[in-house]
Amino acid sequence: MTDRNQLSLDVDVQHGAFHLAIACSLPLAGVTAIYGASGAGKTTLLRCIAGLHASPHGHMHFRQQHWQHLPTHRRGLAYVCQQASLFPHLTVSGNLDYAQRRARRAGHQREEIIALFALAPLLARAPQQLSGGERQRVVLARALLSQPQLLLLDEPFSGIDQAQRTALLPYIRHLSQQLPIIMVSHDLRDIECLAQHIVHLADGRLIAQAPASTLLPSLRAHSDSDRVAALEAENIRLRAALAGQQRLMG
Ligand SMILES: Nc1ncnc2c1ncn2[C@@H]1O[C@H](COP(=O)(O)OP(=O)(O)OP(=O)(O)O)[C@@H](O)[C@H]1O
Hints:
By secondary structure, the protein is α/β, with parallel strands linked by helices. The chain has helices at residues 42-50, 92-102, 110-116, 132-144, 162-175, 188-194, 212-248, and strands at 6-15, 18-27, 31-35, 59-62, 65-66, 77-80, 150-154, 181-185, 197-202, 205-211.
């Protein structure tokens, strides 16, 4: 049996040529960030936790419950995928009502959630009338209406601009004081702002996991040198293209 405050997992998933094999225990407090480059397997790992990818030979324990063979809807979690959408034909209020009707337990906290996400002025609007940040607040509120024990967020800031991102951060920080969050991100700024613990993946493998304060300095140093290398490569490409054009023009 595992610690009550940990999610312990051992997953092994093959997607064509991609192989994810991860065994670790994640703290169930605050925000745990799953970090890595594009294609590292972050979303695949999150979907395994959600029960959306089967890993028949592994194991998964959440607060001493066996999750290995439990379907998604019985795990008591909420999963907010990248660019999660709202029903376009329903207002914000209608979207929340729909989620509440589908919740397993009787929802008594609708008003609380509306206040928490400052949604009162938006209730009568259609999803098309919301900014990206407002839409994300509704998506998070909708996820919370199911009263989850764990919230999974896949790139919660994708598709929204810097100002909206800054406005959304305190909502997620506040939520993380109420329930554990596991968040996928490839952006160290988000992780710095939110995460207490980091799981670093590369090519489907666990590279490191540690408290954010321990791991962030080395991740920052790596990401700076990656950025410099990418800029240099772009510079070389542009100079070669320019030289080619000059040759063509004689
Ligand atoms: N259903 C699938 N079938 C086949 N290959 C898949 C499937 N899902 C993901 N992959 C592949 O698995 C690898 C990991 O994908 P995943 O989405 O987990 O990476 P990621 O780290 O979340 O990347 P990103 O940051 O770009 O979203 C990728 O090479 C992807 O093409």
